[in-house]
Amino acid sequence: MLDKPKCPVIALEEHYWDRELAAQFAGVESVRGEETLKRLYDLSELRIREMDEAGIDMQILSHGAPSAQKLSGADAVALTRRVNDRLHAAVSANPKRFAAFAALPTSEPKAAADELERTTRLGFKGPMIHGLANGAFLDDKRFWPIFERAQALDVPVYLHPSVPLPAVMDAYYKDYAKDFPMVIRAAWGFTVETATQAIRLVLSGLFDAYPRLKIVLGHLGETLPFLVWRVDQALSRPGAKTLSFRDVFCERFYITTSGNFSNPALLCCAMEMGIDRILFAVDWPFVANKPAVDWMRTAPLCNEDKAKILSGNAKRLFRL
Known about the structure:
Blueprint: E1 10-16, H1 19-22, H2 34-40, H3 45-54, E2 58-63, H4 76-93, E3 98-100, H5 109-121, E4 128-130, H6 144-153, E5 157-160, H7 166-177, H8 189-203, H9 206-209, E6 215-217, H10 224-235, H11 245-252, E7 253-256, H12 263-273, E8 278-279, H13 289-298, H14 303-318
Parallel strand pairs: 1-2, 2-3, 4-5, 5-6, 6-7, 7-8
């Protein structure tokens, strides 16, 4: 067995499910196997044992998709608050092993901003938002109070994927979704949706309004580090507004390794964005812990850079 890295290991896209919230979405359990469900609902022995077996010291916990992004109605805010309170209790019971990202009731943006502030005061490390908010892209100005509050609180916003809009799934994926169900999820659909969200946030002027806002993307940046030069060059062609997409992306975004343990992809990200903007994540329980940690031990980086990815950058960004 490879030696444990000579630094703490902090994994920060590690999911769980709250039973009350998961029960709001018919059929959500049917797309997860029994073993995955067992791990999603565990916040103690099983989770910690698998962390220990892989050499992970801390997880930053986050509710899995769709989280609160499909909630609506009068109870959305109160339900999300109960979800966050239960997560806070789990973290408080084991603060050396767990921290947390908050769920937000995006159907009520002002209340979501207030919930972000409340949970930040409780020690949460920022919010995680899953995909579109009831079908709306997050660059819509009705959601800007959330980003305004995140800047004021100096916490990053983690943008996590969720499934595409039904019209997109029908137009792009229906021919293959039956035989390859993950094509609408982790194989491709997630990446397209989340990268599109990120591009729209930049184009919207959000970062002009909130120049200290920080955004986190998983899966080594949802392909954008590979594409950032071309996106920037194409957007700057005659007839467009003045915008340096590359500057905004590389200065305001952070990325994690969740579910993408590729040396060439990692090196591309490091060359485009710099080591200080890459953080370690697994995407547990959808991805096993040990392959992620073992990959980082053998990645073609110096030990100093590995230590930054494994925990140093997370300590700085999340004030751990």
